[in-house]
Amino acid sequence: MANIKVEFPRRQAMLSIWRKYWDADGHEHEDTHIELARVPVFVWPMPTQDGCFIVEHQDGRCQKVQSVSLTFLGSKELFSQYDWSE
Known about the structure:
Elements (H helix, E strand, L loop, with lengths): L10 E12 L5 E16 L9 E4 L5 E4 L4 E3 L3 H6 L5
Antiparallel strand pairs: 1-2, 1-5, 2-3, 3-4
């Protein structure tokens, strides 16, 4: 039996890490979100059924995130600057 390696084309992006605030009733305040950091990730090509994307971090762990938290690296300069695939 042959070993077959399947690879999915993934796009590089920056993932925004947000701090969210809630009021006393437990409702989220959209206007008080603060971006704490941005980290490079690989984004899997297809969104999930709930509209999120699966991202892969540098350490190999995967996470489901909202598309609003992603900034895709469209230019070759940005792509090269954050390329950690090699």
